[in-house]
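Problem: given the chain below (187 residues), write out its structure.
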Amino acid sequence: MKHWYTADTHFGHDNIIKHCNRPFQSASHMDAVLMENLASMVGPDDALWVVGDFAFGPKAKDRKWLTNLFARLPGKEQHLVIGNHDGEATQEWPWTSVTQLTEVSDGKGAPSVLCHYPMITWHRARKGALQLFGHVHDQWMGSRNAVNVGVDVWGYVPVTIQDIQQRARTLPVNMHWDDVERNVEIG
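Solution.
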């Protein structure tokens, strides 16, 4: 099973186009392109991790619209890491999992920690665990160990852990890293 990660899709949200300067004519145009991109990459036996802000706006409260949208999501598993715009209607759908924060083992090394919001430190951070986040759209790519997986910084496509690890190597070390993760034994 291959794992794919994305965040901040904001399906149905007209204002996000202007707010983030997205290259779409309308929310329906954006929704179609995002869904097409997901379908072209996420295979039938794969897992899709939405790291928050799946849908937003009046449509995100319309159960019929959400049912249709959710039914079109590709993959064997669809997981939601709750973002600030993921209301009850979004959370109620038959996701494989719905959580505020989770760890995902995807390849070698420490599991990645998924949270919609960028964090300063997390479980196994000193042991190489990456933190995958969204929320900030195109305002921050992340740092060497915390990577933005949002559509606004990935060309509106989902990404794999290999893509994320490759980008992480090009990002700067978080300037606060030594403030919070000193190699000091506590206990």
